[in-house]
Write a structure and sequence with these properties.
disordered C terminus, alpha+beta, 28 helices, Ubiquitin-like (UB roll), Beta Polymerase, domain 2, Hypothetical protein af1432, single chain, 5 domains, five-stranded mixed β-sheet
């Protein structure tokens, strides 16, 4: 976000020199930045100076809403980055982060002057304002995708972005009030969760409080006053607690540093809002943090505290043994202090404290940590890698952002594999999410699951401590229904990717079959080979159709985007140029039987659930019905009954898209068919009707009662029943008609016209 005064009110950039006061202000703020660079080498400091001079020139003449020279903002962002001890490349990028977006500087210019790494960082931070998008949301989604993917490749991108957003939020008061709500909501919903996900707790808390301040200013002020009053009242109490704790540790000779900590205003507000509490009922506003030399001392310290004050039952959390998703480690316990006030204590080591406050930035702050250690893997690396995995499977920005948002919720549950490996999952995650978290192949082949030794549905939500066993099968594949309950972005993107791939494969196979049949109708036995002398024919055909490759053309035919007979005629024409003529005998035979097979021969259907074949909802065909196939435009093959009114209207209008289809000998599933049952209204009638259907081993998938059209005596019941075939349907209807209280039972065929006639 750039808080720049509109150009109409500005002198042209790079032409009007800044006034002496502005120059002095910028120089003073840069001098303060240089004072923070003592951890860099002389060469690195020189790179930062060059970046400052370049950015200063680029932003010359630009001011912020406060009236300060614009360069003070990049300097402030770089200063925030020094708190994480980021390297010179990151600081240079921080100083120039708005130069491409606001000053027309090109990426190649930055590569020439500062090298490719710095240019990539600046490019990752640049929004896509110059591209055309239909909506603001589309623009925002694409910009976030760009930033997150850049961040996945180099985490410094998001650290600079968070520093940029933090400074913009600190100076929000200079922005028009009309922008407060949008920018604060965006910060609260996107940037704060990203900071939390990456373990940057200090930044996370500050962004939350600043967003709260500008999003709900009145509530913020009221709560701030209440906390200030409470702080003054309880100062003596907290000093007493601190003194007693220090004495307790001095007795056993343990080295410990004690800090007071206060709940943030936003977290107090959220607790009051979610649990419907008054401010007086929020008792854990204050807490203490103990920094001890090593891990064992954390547990010893907890024992000392439990001897000093009584613990609150159920308020102990061990985040050392089981770290949070973002790498956070600490022992938490809530104790009843003097005057009955609840006080939370946190015990951690120095190393844990660095990670707790700075998350992924601990890589630069805590030098003892090896880059390839298990610790660094916990610091968000897995999540960053998952962003790249999701991107590989979806190229739609809004879809990508939907996947990511799900993973930004901080709550987690901890579950076990059968081999006792601990895995952290988002709250609300299901068995399928777990399967994909283990491995994408496990997820794709999931057939059933056991939790704590008992078989459970795949949509079962996970709870802390569950032991989960996934049962796989080589013939299993993802079900589209899974998308309705999975929680994680990884699972969602893997399922969608698999379904898309499967749909493409099925459509390609159908397209090949249709084109082969159309070629037979033209007197050619089979499709020409793709190699040898026929390779040039395929190239010409692809140019004619505008397809990039053969598979793409076959998919289009399978989806009904192209008519097989037209493509076949062109292909036969190209073959004739090579001297290959149609087989006269085959041509005669195919034309003689054309009335039996409509235009393109017969395709067998067996009820397999796939994207290339759909069953029309207007007539609900079942095995045994006479059927025809309509090659919908972009929808694949839609199956209608021969006497379906909708199908007949389509045939009259679009006959070349119809083809003969037939049922396979052994359909693989049951088929839904709607029934209308008229019954005498009375006690237990629904139970009798349901029993009659169940007796014939048919499943009821839906039931509702229609309008009482014949008065109080009768009522219409509408069922959707799953049957194997037409004979099974007839036996269900006979059973219903024999049932007492049933006056009529019949199959329903809707005359409702569907635009696509299918699915």
């Amino acid at each position: 976000m750039s808080a720049i005064v509109p150009p109409s009110t500005l002198p042209p950039a790079r032409t009007q020199p800044a006034g002496p006061a502005a120059a002095n202000a910028a120089a003073a703020s840069f001098a303060a930045l240089v004072d923070r660079l003592d951890y860099l080498s002389t060469q690195d400091v020189d790179l930062v100076r060059r970046a400052y001079r370049f950015a200063d020139e680029a932003h010359l003449g630009q001011t912020r809403k406060s009236g300060e020279p614009y360069i003070t903002h990049p300097i402030a962002v770089a200063a925030l980055c020094t708190e994480w001890k980021l390297d010179a490349q990151a600081l240079a990028a921080a100083l120039m982060h708005d130069s491409m977006e606001d000053c027309g500087v090109t990426k190649s210019e930055l590569v020439d002057k500062f090298g490719a790494p710095v240019a990539e960082l600046v490019d990752g931070l640049t929004k896509l304002d110059k591209l055309e998008f239909n909506t603001r949301e589309e623009n925002q989604a694409e910009s976030f995708r760009k930033m997150l993917l850049a961040m996945a490749r180099d985490v410094r991108v998001i650290l600079i972005k968070l520093a940029d957003r933090t400074h913009n939020m600190r100076t929000m008061g200079d922005m028009p009030r009309s922008k407060w709500g949008r920018i604060s909501s965006e910060t609260l919903e996107i940037y704060a969760p990203i900071a939390h996900r990456l373990g940057l707790n200090q930044t996370y808390r500050e962004l939350q409080d600043l967003s709260f301040r500008y999003l709900l200013p009145w509530r913020y002020k009221v709560l701030d006053k209440a906390v200030t009053r409470a702080r003054n009242r309880r100062r003596d109490l907290m000093q007493r607690v601190q003194k007693e704790v220090e004495q307790a540790f001095a007795k056993i000779g343990m080295e410990v540093r004690i800090y007071g900590r206060e709940k943030t205003l936003y977290s107090i507000y959220k607790k009051m809002d979610s649990k419907h509490l008054s401010f007086a009922q929020v008792t854990d506003i204050y807490g203490m943090r103990l920094i001890v030399p090593n891990v064992v001392d954390c547990y010893t310290a907890m024992g000392v505290l439990h001897q000093l004050y009584k613990p609150v039952p159920g308020r102990f959390k061990d985040h050392i043994a089981i770290a949070k998703l973002n790498g956070y480690q600490s022992l938490h316990t809530t104790l009843v202090g003097p005057s009955g006030i609840n006080i939370e204590f946190q015990m951690r080591t120095d190393a844990m404290h660095v990670v707790a406050e700075s998350g992924v930035a601990a890589h630069w702050l805590y030098k003892a940590q090896a880059p390839g250690s298990e610790q660094s893997e916990r610091l968000g690396a897995k999540w960053l890698q998952s962003l790249l995995d999701i991107q590989d499977e979806t190229h739609d920005a809004a879809e990508f952002w939907d996947h990511v948002k799900v993973d930004l919720f901080p709550d987690a549950v901890y579950v076990f594999t059968p081999k006792s490996r601990i895995m952290a999952m988002p709250r609300g995650a299901t068995v399928v999410d777990f399967a994909y978290a283990v491995h994408s192949n496990i997820g794709d082949r999931t057939m059933a699951a056991k939790i704590n030794g008992e078989q459970v549905p795949l949509r079962t939500e996970l709870r802390n401590g569950d032991v989960i066993e996934i049962i796989t099968s080589t013939v299993a594949s993802p079900n589209p229904a899974w998308l309705g309950f999975v929680r994680t972005g990884r699972a969602r993107s893997k399922i969608r990717h698999h379904l898309k791939t499967m749909a493409q494969t099925e459509s390609r196979e159908l397209g090949e079959k249709l084109l082969t049949q159309a070629m037979r109708a033209e007197g050619m036995e089979a499709l020409p080979a793709t190699i040898g002398r026929h390779a040039a024919i395929w190239e010409k055909l692809l140019r004619f159709t505008g397809s990039r490759q053969r598979d793409e053309l076959l998919v289009d035919i399978g989806l009904g985007k192209r008519v097989a007979s037209i493509v076949a005629k062109r292909l036969v024409g190209l073959l004739s140029e090579l001297g290959e003529k149609p087989d006269a005998l085959l041509l005669s035979r195919e034309r003689f039987t054309a009335h039996e097979t409509l235009s393109q021969g017969s395709v067998q259907v067996d009820g397999s659930e796939n994207a290339s074949v759909q069953y029309a909802r207007c007539c609900h065909p079942v095995p045994g019905d006479a059927i025809v196939g309509y090659l919908g435009r972009g929808e694949g093959l839609v199956i209608h009954t021969e006497d379906c009114a909708v199908g007949q209207r389509l045939k009259h209008k679009d006959s070349e898209r119809f083809m003969a289809v037939e049922w396979a000998d052994e359909p693989v599933r049951a088929f839904d068919v709607p029934l209308l049952v008229t019954v005498s209204n009375g006690k237990g009638v629904l139970a009798r009707v349901a029993a009659a259907i169940a007796k014939e081993e048919a499943d009821i998938t839906m039931v509702n009662s229609g309008d009482d059209s014949a008065g109080d005596e009768t009522i219409e019941l509408r069922f959707v029943v799953a049957v194997r075939d037409q004979a099974h349907l007839e036996s269900v209807l006979r059973s219903l008609r024999r049932t007492s209280s049933v006056s009529q039972a019949r199959r329903v065929v809707s005359s409702k016209s569907y635009p696509t006639a299918g699915g």
